[in-house]
């Protein structure tokens, strides 16, 4: 259970992450393959509530690696952290409608240019639920 000070720090942490990453943000995402070799790639993601979200291809190497080992690392503008990668399934699933709408809006500059095929059942939403991280803002370091 958090004490009041920890709760305020967490609220500030989420506030900064939301302000900084609730729009289309380039992030580095690291996964580990079955031989223990790390892989990192740049993704477009948004932060919402306690997680980063992106649209990706369900059969990609990153998703195969996450299926075998869901622990990932993610970093962006003055932020780095760890999380659990979760395949939320096809973007058109009813339970994905809220976050799918946010993703479409955030990625609107490039979303409909042929890059995203929502009719393909392998077009999925990847959620990265944060487990810990370090964030720098206004000369302060925030950890959770």
Report how far the terminal alpha carbons are from each other: 13 Å
Q: How helix-rich are the residues, as a percent range? A: 25-40%
Largest sheet entry: 6 strands, antiparallel, barrel
What ranges have pLDDT less than 50 throughout 5 or more consecutive residues?
none
What does this structure look like?
Helix content is 25%, strand content 44%. The chain contains three helices and seven strands; from the N terminus they run αβββαββαββ. It has a six-stranded antiparallel β-barrel with strand order 1-2-3-6-5-4. A hairpin with a 2-residue loop joins strand 6 and strand 7 (140-143). It is globular and about 45 Å long. The model has no long low-confidence stretch (mean pLDDT 93).
Helix/strand layout:
Elements: H1 4-21, E1 25-32, E2 38-48, E3 51-57, H2 61-68, E4 71-76, E5 79-90, H3 97-106, E6 123-137, E7 140-143
Antiparallel strand pairs: 1-2, 1-4, 2-3, 3-6, 4-5, 5-6, 6-7
Give the key terms.
about 140 residues; alpha+beta; 6-stranded antiparallel beta barrel; 3 helices; 7 strands; about 45% strand; globular
Q: Can you summarize this structure?
A:
The chain has 144 residues and is α+β, with helices and mostly antiparallel strands. It is built from 3 helices and 7 strands; from the N terminus they run H-E-E-E-H-E-E-H-E-E.
